[in-house]
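Good morning C.,

I know you're traveling, so I'll keep this short. The sequence:
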Amino acid sequence: MKTQQTKDMEQALIRDALRKGKHPALEVPYAHTIDIGHETYWPEGQWEYIDAVIEQQGMFTCLELKVSISDLHS
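The tokens, ready to paste straight into the viewer:
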């Protein structure tokens, strides 16, 4: 369950991206591939959600949002 602080941070991220002419999306599903930077991080085909993705001119920035140290370790 998301805290209010996390929800506020997501909304601030969306407002900032839109203001800058970027295209934001939250909770984007991602299927892992075999090789990412010559190391296998997750099994091929395993799904997870990226907290936020921002697109601008075909370039994508993926963000994992954390509001506290305990959130980081969860």
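Safe travels,
E.
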